[in-house]
Each structure stands twice: as structure tokens, then as C-alpha cells.
Write a structure and sequence with these properties.
Blueprint (H helix, E strand, L loop, with lengths): L6 E4 L18 E6 L15 E7 L9 E2 L8 E2 L12 E12 L2 E5 L8 E7 L2 H4 L2
Antiparallel strand pairs: 1-2, 1-8, 2-7, 3-6, 3-8, 4-5, 6-7
Length: 131
């Protein structure tokens, strides 16, 4: 299996300690720049209000299967948490699209660290993505 980044995330968060517990708890803006070879995939994205952003948590620990989640006292398996610590640190974050300028998207609610590799973008559709 090979994953190839399609862009890069520029955010105000330089360290994990600076990033919000969940992106929805922050009004900070981030910029997502799509690499030139993937620019055609942005056609129509400006029509969307919310996006699902998939990114690689390249600074996350990958050797733990159990952790004590933030704010908790009881240990849990990583698959029962949303912690970045996991064997394959793929992150999923719901964001609000604030603007599009060429290959750069400005979004709100993204919890990614600055420089995180972008893996994919999908539109959020409430009738599909909510129960």
C-alpha cells in the first residue's frame, strides 16, 4: 500500500500542545495547498460548505496500542479513542470551507499541525455522514 500526499497543511499549530483537543473547538484558520498535479480535483469545491480532511499525523507516536485519553484516568485501546497515537496515524477532521484561492483552501476547525501532509478531501453531506 502506498499513500501519496496531495497537498500540505499550513496551520497555526506548531506542536501537539498548541493544537485543540478537537478542531471544532477552535475558530483558528488554516490553509491547505493542493499540489499542482492535483489541482483539477478542486473543480466545484467552492460550492461546498463543509469538507472532510484526511491527513497524515507525521509527528504522532506509532508504537502504542493503549493510552490514557486526554482528560481521562482509565486506559483504553487506541481504536476506542480519537487520539493521534495509532499504528497508521491517519486523521479525519470536519472543517468549514471559508474560501478558495486557486489551489489554496482556507478552512476553520482543522486541528492538524503545521506542515502535515494532506491525503484526501471529501465533501461532507449530512444525509450520508450523519445518522
Amino acid at each position: 500500500m502506498k499513500l501519496k500526499p496531495i497537498g500540505i497543511i499550513n496551520s497555526p499549530y506548531k506542536t501537539r500542545a498548541e493544537s485543540p483537543h478537537q478542531g471544532r473547538y477552535s475558530e483558528e484558520l488554516s490553509k491547505i495547498t493542493i499540489f499542482e498535479g492535483y489541482a483539477d480535483g478542486l473543480l466545484g469545491i467552492g460550492d461546498k460548505k463543509y469538507l472532510l480532511i484526511f491527513y497524515w499525523q507525521d509527528k504522532a507516536e506509532r508504537d502504542k496500542l493503549q493510552i490514557v485519553p486526554r482528560g481521562k484516568t482509565k486506559k483504553k485501546g487506541v481504536f476506542a479513542t480519537r487520539a493521534p497515537v495509532r499504528p497508521n496515524p491517519i486523521a479525519l477532521c470536519l472543517v468549514e470551507l471559508v474560501g478558495v484561492d486557486g489551489r489554496t483552501l482556507t478552512v476553520r476547525w482543522l486541528d492538524a499541525l503545521d506542515g502535515s501532509p494532506l491525503l484526501d478531501i471529501k465533501p461532507f453531506w449530512a444525509d450520508i455522514d450523519c445518522l
